[in-house]
Specification:
Elements (H helix, E strand, L loop, with lengths): L1 E6 L3 H13 L3 E7 L2 H11 L3 E5 L7 H11 L5 E5 L6 H8 L4 E4 L4 H10 L1
Parallel strand pairs: 1-2, 1-3, 3-4, 4-5
């Protein structure tokens, strides 16, 4: 079972992702972090296979956390979750920093699971 850490400051988005992940049969949710700093700590303690991380969060945002995670763990698999869609510098920056893909909000279960299964 592939272990996924959900990182989002929005409880409703986090719960939606956790539900999709848990009901898939292929993945299990190992935790929920509310910002990038928690994600870095939980990556160390929970050792997830994949991190689904929001780009915009208070405290440490997703791109800053991605930058740190990529240095700490060369094999880390991060999928960014954003309402920015496929436009803008942040999307491109996330991929340059090592994000494996980007999930756009609002998202459907099929899209989320397809992206996670491709990793």
């Amino acid at each position: 079972m592939t272990r996924v850490l959900v990182v989002d400051d929005s409880l409703s988005v986090a719960r939606q992702l956790e539900k999709i992940i848990s009901e898939s049969g292929d993945f299990t949710c190992v935790g929920h972090a509310k910002n990038g700093a928690e994600a870095i700590r939980m990556n160390h303690t929970e050792n997830p296979d994949i991190i689904c991380m929001d780009m915009n969060m208070p405290g440490m945002d997703g791109l800053t956390a991605l930058r740190t995670l990529s240095v700490m763990d060369k094999d880390v698999k991060v999928v960014m979750v954003t309402s920015l869609g496929g436009v803008g510098d942040k999307f491109t920056e996330a991929l340059k920093l090592g994000a494996k893909n980007v999930i756009s909000k609002p998202f459907g279960a099929d899209d989320v699971l397809r992206i996670l299964r491709e990793l």
